[in-house]
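Q: I'm writing a short methods note and want an example of a predicted protein-small molecule complex. Could you take the sequence and the SMILES for flavin-adenine dinucleotide and return the bound structure as tokens? Please keep the output block clean; save any remarks for afterwards.
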Amino acid sequence: MNIQKNYSTSTKNCLKNSVVIIGGGPAGLKAAEILIDAGFKVDLYEAMPSVARKFLMAGKGGMNISNNEPYDVFLSRFSDQGNIMRSALDMFSPNDLRVWLQELGVDTFVGSSGRVFPIDMKAAPLLRKWLYRLRYAGVNLHMRHKWIGWSNRNDQHLLFDVEGEIREIYADNVILALGGASWPKLGSTGEWVSILANQGVKITPLQPANCGFDVNWTEYFRAHYSGKPLKSVSMSFDSITGVSNCHKGELLVTDYGVEGGVIYSLSAQLREEIAIKGFVMIYLDLMPNISKDTVISKLERDRGKQSISNHMRKQLGINGVKAGLLREVINSSCFSNTSQLGALIKSLPIKLIATRPIAEAISTAGGVSFIELDQNLMLINKPGVFCTGEMLDWEAPTGGYLLTACLSLGQAAGIGLIKSCERKQEG
Ligand SMILES: Cc1cc2nc3c(=O)[nH]c(=O)nc-3n(C[C@H](O)[C@H](O)[C@H](O)COP(=O)(O)OP(=O)(O)OC[C@H]3O[C@@H](n4cnc5c(N)ncnc54)[C@H](O)[C@@H]3O)c2cc1C
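A: Understood, no commentary inside the block.
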């Protein structure tokens, strides 16, 4: 999008302002694009030797960049953050994102359950084209510059650690796009939390989102089944608010517990339940496509001299990790009681005792509180300093929502900076 239009005097004066963006993930790069297109001089600083490492990692298993579901449903995926998320997404919607990608030369397709992917499913070709365009437009990229805070002069003097040497850099306006704290080896370490908190900025504690959970498996189960997927199961849990949630999909058994799409989609609620009660019970339906009565009637068929394991395999197709899980969780006496066994196949209780550490999570919940920001994403108590992307206090499940939101918020911060700068010039 080129927002360079007929400049008013106030906008022309703004363009004399220097802009520093810190953090070269999708949010920071999108803000850079908006500002360079508007005619600003843009310098982007990144701690790592190259930008967008998490973005590239997101492309490893197939880059799910957005979602094609109806816009109201799309908006409902975000934790309730009032108008700010909505107005960012209104300015750069999932449809706008697909148009933007097409302009970059990246065609997309809609996969199962509305997920949107680049045709080649990869992030690297997209990033290459995008960086070429940003550099060509004049964005100056500075690698290996780790922001460590402000000098004691004022908010316009930034301090960077450049391979052990401390440098002070001046900027009229700053956009912080520092990411969350998951996968810190890719650059987003969450170290900014203490810097901003020390300046009096309210930060909602960072927590794992879209994460795995710990289960106290026995050594036997761990040794035999870790790494095995539980295919087409559905999962439910009763929350303390009384709401029963049910999701269908795949769950991966790991040596520490469980991972995978079906649990990621409920991870926010599960995390909250654990925070309150110290654990949460989930219930797996191992045969979600047939009713409990059908399961029981199949189990009740004469099995002759067959073992119950063989009978379950032949009648219901339950074997491997599903059979192992039943043996792990339920008392051996239940195997001779077909109605009890059938009920447990349809609703097998598993106790989740903790979330996995944030470093292993796909994304981060918590961050800079929205009450600290004006509608332009500027810190109310730090004029000229804007925050954007995953470092803000929102969360969403996997399914393309995270990247769309980060790109929208990056664009919103860029436009917000232009607006607040113009307002300052006029007033
Ligand atoms: C394994 C994995 C798979 C994922 N898959 C998907 C997916 O398919 N779809 C989807 O929508 N989302 C996915 N995500 C999430 C998505 O990648 C993130 O939500 C998104 O990258 C966040 O963008 P951001 O720009 O806010 O932050 P980041 O991408 O984290 O970028 C922040 C940047 O700031 C830099 N930085 C941090 N601190 C400093 C500092 N002090 N000084 C200078 N630079 C600093 C970091 O090095 C980093 O480059 C995935 C995440 C992971 C980990």
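A: Remarks, as requested: The chain has 16 helices and 20 strands. Residues 9-209+362-426 form a domain with the FAD/NAD(P)-binding domain fold (CATH 3.50.50.60).
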